[in-house]
Amino acid sequence: HNTALVDSELDEIGQALPELNDMALSNLTSLTYTSPPLSQPFTMVGPGALDVQLSSLEPATDVYAVVADVAPDGMAYPVATGALRTSFPNVLPSCSLSDAQGEVVDPCNDFSQITNASPGTTRTYQVELLPMGNVFSAGSRIRLYILGTPLDQIPSLPGLNTVTLGG
User: Fold this and answer.
1) Taken in order 36, 23, 78, 63, is the CA torsion positive or negative?
2) Measured in whole angstroms, how far is the alpha carbon of residue 66 from the centre of its chain?
3) What are phi and psi of 82, to 5 degrees?
4) Quick check: 124 and 16 in contact, CB under 8 A?
5) How many CB atoms within 10 Å of residue 81?
6) What distance in Å separates the CA atoms of residue 14 and residue 66, rounded to the nearest whole number?
7) How far is CA 104 from the centre of its chain?
8) Which residues, 6 or more positions from 98, have their beta carbon under 8 angstroms from its beta carbon?
9) 11 vs 7, 8, 17, 131, CA distance in Å?
10) Please, which pLDDT band fits residue 106 given cuts at 50, 70 and 90?
11) Rounded CA separation 139/158 (Å)
12) 3-class SS letters over the chain
């Protein structure tokens, strides 16, 4: 099997069973941010990053980020994902991609050293979003889901995570 065939098969399964692509099941365990309806089409292409200030009751947990295209009927379809174990908070500037203003848009996380957080301590994490390509239609909304450790990652403990907004 090559990757293109596997991706094609997954697309067929998603089209036959659209509820598998629906993000509604994540609404119960995620923090979400949704834009207003778009007044014109918007193209999102390339790498991305989520900068998030987070504390957890666990010394190591996970941060999952999902960007979704929310159709006018409310159905949300994932278009980009990223994940980071909080024990790897450091970014390597030498292999990260930055924009013209110096903001990291594609972080290269440093997985060479485990650095667990003290429970309850807020740290900033840069979660790499895998490269995306999507045209959001006029009337659609863009939604960001922030999730913790999913149940399928057990025995890794899910942590009670707190996200800090603003300064």
Assistant:
1) positive
2) 3
3) -155, 155
4) no
5) 16
6) 17
7) 16
8) 104, 105
9) 6, 5, 10, 18
10) very high
11) 35
12) CCHHHHHHHHHHHHHHCHHHCCHHHHHHCEEEEECCCCCCCEEEEEEEEEEEEEEECCCCCEEEEEEEEECCCCCEEEEEEEEEECCCCCECHHHCEECCCCCEEECCECCCCCCCCCCCCCEEEEEEEEEEEEEECCCCEEEEEEECCCHHHCCCCCCCEEEECCC
Q: How far apart are CA 23 and CA 66, in angstroms?
A: 9
Tokens of residue 155, six digits: 């025995």
The answer to whether 85 touches 159, Cβ cutoff 8 Å, is: no
* 135, two tokens: 């045209």
Overall average pLDDT of the 57-84 stretch: 91
Tokens of 142: 């863009």
Length of the chain equals 167
**Two tokens at 10?**
């997954």
Please say if the pLDDT value at position 2 is more than 70.
no
Q: What is the pLDDT of residue 137?
A: 96
Tokens standing for 70?
A: 């929310």
